[in-house]
Amino acid sequence: MIAQKNGWQGHWLALAVCACAGPAWAADAPVTNATLAELRLWFMVMAAAAVVLIGVFWSRGLPLFGALAALVLLGSSARLWLTQPLWFPRLEIVADPPENLIMLLILAAQAVLTGVVLMRPAGREAVRGLFAGAGIIRLFLLMGLVAVFCLSATPYVAYGYYTAFGLQIGVGGALSLVQMATLVAMFAVAGPDRIPRIPVAALAVFATVVSAVLAWTAFDRVPHVEDELAYLFQARTFAAGTLWAPVPPEAAQPALEYYLLEVHDGKWISVPAQGWAIVLSLGVLIGVPWVINPILTGISVWLAHDIVRRTISRERADMVALLMATSPWVLAVGATLMTHSVMLVAVLLAWWCLIRAGEGVARRAILLAFIAGLALGWSFVTRPLDALIVGGLTGLWLLRRLPGGIGQVLACAVGGVLSGSVFLLLNYGTTGDILLTPQSDYLSRLWPDTKNAFGFGPNVGPPATSWGALDIWVGHSPAEGLLNLINGIASLNLELLGWTFGSLVPIWIVFIWRKRLTGFDRAMLVILVALVGVLFFYWFTGTFYLGPRYWHTALIPFLVLSAAGIEAVKDRLPDQYHGRLHCIILLLCAVSVVSFTSWRGVSKYDGYGGFTGDIRRQAQAAELSNALVFVATNANIGSALYLNDPFLPEGKPIFLRDMGPEQNAAIIAAFPGRKVVYLGDSE
């Protein structure tokens, strides 16, 4: 805590000099995972992309539009450069490194050029039309929401630095105002007003490829949090055709110990819900587990498009697919070994089948309802809480088909029971109790005095240890639930679309300007409120890795409402500007991929959590086989342990935590006949 307080004092000096600073987070994490050289290279690529934009539009006789488009890219990139990317992102406007001054000059240039354009007759007319059509009070409300949710309040509340929070809101809101004003200026100059429709197949392939590239490069095909290592461990166990691996020799257990892996009752297992691990085992069998989530990401784009096309319109579906395929949140989740992509596909597949089934009683409709039930049941095996909420609401909607659709209702129920019962069978196979999950059993021993549960009370959540700003108060309370909710909204505002002025702007527009919602919109809103509302009672938000990942099952509701907000803007524009709006949205989506997603890859995901592929590369270079590999590293030891085959077979290396000479000797004795290798950061 002393170090954290000193960090805050240093930032107060920056406040006095630069009028904007941020706290030192509870976890003593570096400001960024990237080196300054890597960030410089990233920004040089952004500058080159901006030059290309100018050249493309200049060649078409649209130089001013091209300059504004380039500033949208450069301004977003400059703001990201000034943003501390880890844990709770915030602006850090200080004089070191000197490139920060260049970024401020770029943002100033954006403000100046935008102001010049808006002061011209066409610009003044655009501003007058904006205020007349939108209303001053509503515009001020929108900008207030943009400013308030431009960063998380959690660390500022945790350490009591409310003045710094206010300054961050002020500076962040001002930058967002400039960025949004630039978009208004793009309607006041000559520009493209027609854009070809992008086929959904192309968007699905694009999402798959970008996620795969992220998985190969930034994520380095390694786990980056303990959950991912646990899923991969269990996937390898399932790929071998068993529910658990044999217990390692007792001497080796401390060197193989890792959070969410448990040795108990003669079994070595991972404890999270296992639906994803079963799917991931297919990737293990073909030798490339990291490709499964990118493939699922592309499938989810196609399913989402067809669902929205059938329930609302082709135009809305195209927009949802575009936003989804370019969402940094979607692409990053698809590049990980986390469970969320398969959960999303299961839910979307269920909805797609039920929508296709319609209200008939034909054999095909019943078969589709049965498949929908299987998908919903599998979502329960994957993420039980999300499945109970979404599955329950979907079931209530399906009951509307009674009495004529009794066959569909029964078929869906049977399918759900059949696949969902796998959850109970897995519980019985690992804990001996169909209602006791391995994770609950594990945490009951790891946290004997508290509980990982929903609700309020002093014993809800982890033990009172140093979770810092990730869980600032002991237990859970309505106040912390509200703070977690605000933190989740701020995180989603950054990650969902990658629009640095605010990804939630289209959703704010829906409610501020009272966009008329379709029946499907309202259904999505109910699901969104239910999922987010239930998680209000959970002690943790988990936004520090992949944004508000506990809300990921509500992705389609968020995107459907975002597309509705864009429609609301279109409805208030003269017809001649509809094509221009689509061009600008496409530009923003392109910027989110080119700038925001690559920034996340360079500054955060590469080496996140101390996980790297360095141990894997050292092992490959040494051509290890049948060796005991003792690893001493400053990185996360999971970077080595994830390489293990759970069965520790002869002929394959066993990676272990270096426990020191005495304990290592006992481990060597437990594995006679194996050569011994030592690896570490200095190797």
What does this protein look like?
The protein is mainly alpha-helical and 683 residues long. It has 29 helices and seven strands. It has helices spanning 2-18, 36-59, 63-81, 99-119, 121-134, 136-148, 154-159, 162-185, 200-216, 226-239, 253-256, 275-286, 292-311, 314-325, 328-334, 340-357, 363-382, 384-398, 406-431, 438-446, 478-495, 505-512, 519-535, 543-546, 555-572, 578-605, 614-622, 638-641, 661-670, and strands spanning 83-84, 90-91, 261-264, 267-270, 627-632, 654-657, 675-680. α17 (363-382) runs parallel beside α19. The radius of gyration is 26 Å and the shape is globular. The model is unreliable at 1-31 (pLDDT under 50).
Layout of secondary structure:
Elements: H1 2-18, H2 36-59, H3 63-81, E1 83-84, E2 90-91, H4 99-119, H5 121-134, H6 136-148, H7 154-159, H8 162-185, H9 200-216, H10 226-239, H11 253-256, E3 261-264, E4 267-270, H12 275-286, H13 292-311, H14 314-325, H15 328-334, H16 340-357, H17 363-382, H18 384-398, H19 406-431, H20 438-446, H21 478-495, H22 505-512, H23 519-535, H24 543-546, H25 555-572, H26 578-605, H27 614-622, E5 627-632, H28 638-641, E6 654-657, H29 661-670, E7 675-680
Parallel strand pairs: 5-6, 5-7
Antiparallel strand pairs: 1-2, 3-4
Helix pairs in contact: 2-3, 2-26, 3-4, 3-8, 3-26, 4-8, 6-8, 6-22, 9-13, 9-14, 9-15, 10-12, 13-14, 13-15, 13-16, 14-25, 16-17, 17-18, 17-19, 22-25, 23-25
